[in-house]
Amino acid sequence: MQKLEMIYEGKAKKVYKTDDPKLYIVDYKDDATAFNGQKKGQIAGKGVVNNTMTNIVFKKIEERGVPTHLVEQLSERETLVKAVKIIPLEVIIRNVAAGSFSKRYGVPEGQPLAKTVLEFSYKNDDLGDPLINDDHILALELATPEELELVRKYAYTVNDVLKEFFLERGLKLIDFKIEFGIADGQVLLADEISPDTCRLWDVETNEKMDKDRFRRDLGNVEETYLEVFRRVQE
Ligand code: TMP
Ligand code: ASP
Q1: pLDDT at 126 over 90
Q2: Which residues line ligand 2 (CB under 6 A)?
């Protein structure tokens, strides 16, 4: 399968057309950004880690009945995927307080939550990806009620799969962000699942094993991505 015209370049990935209009090729970059692109950098090898890890994890998720856009990994940095129209929502699941949740509600990072939290952000860089609720989503017609219900159901299943998968590898899943797309009327898990999009803390030491090392200048960024990669391949 050949890469044709590039149709989209995001902060961490490029997307190309192929000679099949139903298939795209995603190409993962080493570029890293934070705070809506205000902080920019590179994490050497990140594209390889995030591409391969996404493939491994999406396969596990598929096995548990959540359809994904994945077709096949083509190379270290490239994956063939079904062409989807992305639903412009960041679907975030939180198992433990951290990040913007801790900041917004004034609770310490690491505080257990009495309930798993599902929240949505409206994917819109100009607006800074604002928090959005179900009524807002339906009022703005970002998704239909049926799509929204599936997105919620799939998100909780993804959480169950990921929590177990990471725990077996000595990592606590604090929170994560996923995205969904539509192809042929079907809701599919799309985008990526990687240390860029999950908070993972070492079960023994509580050390941060994710993109917070880059966001917060904690050091050992590349080493940490490689360590997560090593554990994920076990
Ligand atoms: P937050 O606490 O900053 O809202 O982040 C929640 C989760 O979403 C965390 O695992 C990191 C992930 N995330 C992304 O994947 N992309 C983003 O642009 C942001 C802000 C967070
Ligand atoms: N990728 C996001 C950005 O640049 C933020 C993040 O992951 O923290 O804006």
Answers
A1: yes
A2: 11, 33-37, 211, 215
Percent of the chain with pLDDT over 90: 99
- Residue spans of the domains in the chain: they are 3-82, 86-220
- Strand (E) or helix (H) holding 73: strand 70-73
CA 33–ligand 2 middle distance (angstroms): 5
Which is the closest atom of ligand 1 to the Cα of 103? 2
Q: Say whether domain 3-82 belongs to CATH 3.30.200.20.
A: yes
- Ligand that comes closest to the CA of residue 10: 2
pLDDT at 176 over 90: yes
Atom 2 of ligand 2, residue of closest alpha carbon: 34
Per the rule left: phi > 0, alpha: psi between -120 and 50, beta: everything else, 202 is beta
Mean pLDDT of the chain: 98
**pTM for the predicted model, two decimal places:** 0.97
Q: Closest ligand 1 atom, CA of 100?
A: 2
Which superfamily does CATH assign the domain made up of 86-220 to? ATP-grasp fold, B domain (3.30.470.20)
Selection from 223, 230, 112, 98 nearest residue 169 by Cα: 230
